[in-house]
Specification:
The chain is mainly alpha-helical. It has ten helices and no strands. Helix content is about 80%, strand content about 0%.
Length: about 270
């Protein structure tokens, strides 16, 4: 009788041969992309080596901050930025809600209407707020109106997309019960979908307002109103003490907005 064949030892490997090749290709592509990017941005080594000295010199010019300019130049501009963020968020929410309902597949059963709504959400989300601001400044002129509309239109895609996902994750039980009872479409939305997405809705609104507060500050650099215009003018006139005061005021507003959003979320959610 022939001896029984000994079992062949099998070596465990985390990835198969195809997976290892795919990972190598991905890593090689990333490295090549980084190398091409570094070469295309034309980094000047002399500027990098000189940066610490230039930063130290700039900080010396910015000290002490020009506190006397706050009540005259900065305070009202900060309020304008807050108003731009608040009104722009409200307008963005009002325009985003219909598209959110149309983009949700379980609410709107027509695929072509879903795709049209999703296209609007993608288009408004893909265009940067500064690009919207430049467009509205060209149409309406410099000022808070251009900044408000830029904030509102860019917020449509963000709020509408996340709101439609919240609608699609709702439980179908209450909706089916309302439809079985013969409730009209408005009642199904009001009493079936809406109560389930209220926490997500308010979370989105607060989060978007917090983001818009930061963005409204930057919009002034392109003439769309707010404290960014004061910062841009101070930098152009080399008033570094005023620049420092503007930056301190912006930091304070951002921190206060973060604290306010956190407090409100704890109270209503």
């Amino acid at each position: 009788m022939s001896a029984a064949a000994e079992p062949v030892a099998r070596e465990w490997q985390r990835y198969s041969c195809g997976e290892r090749i795919a990972r190598f290709v991905v890593y090689l592509t990333l490295v090549a992309a980084v190398v091409l990017s570094v070469r295309s941005v034309e980094v000047i080594p002399e500027f990098i080596l000189d940066a610490p000295e230039q930063v130290a010199d700039l900080l010396k010019r910015m000290w002490p901050p020009d506190a006397a300019s706050y009540p005259q130049e900065i305070h009202q501009a900060l309020l304008d930025s807050m108003h731009i963020a608040t009104v722009g968020t409200v307008l963005g929410v009002l325009m985003a809600l219909p598209f959110g309902f149309l983009a949700a597949r379980n609410v709107t059963p027509w695929p072509w209407l879903n795709w049209m709504a999703r296209l609007v959400l993608i288009a408004t989300r893909s265009v940067n707020t500064l690009v919207f601001a430049l467009f509205f400044v060209a149409v309406f002129g410099p000022g808070a109106l251009a900044g408000t509309l830029a904030i509102a239109f860019h917020s449509i895609g963000f709020i509408g997309r996340l709101f439609s996902e919240a609608l699609e994750n709702t439980s179908p039980g209450p909706i089916e019960a309302l439809r079985a009872a013969g409730a009209p479409g408005v009642s199904v939305i009001s009493f079936g979908y809406w109560p389930q997405v209220v926490p997500a809705f308010w979370s989105l609104v607060l989060f978007r307002w917090d983001i818009n507060v930061r963005e409204s500050i930057v919009l002034g650099l392109v003439g769309a109103g707010g404290v960014g215009m004061v910062l841009d003018n101070a930098m152009n006139l080399f008033l570094w003490g005023r620049v420092a005061m503007v930056l301190i005021a912006i930091l304070a507003v951002v921190v206060l907005a973060e604290v306010a959003v956190t407090y409100i979320r704890k109270k209503i959610l």
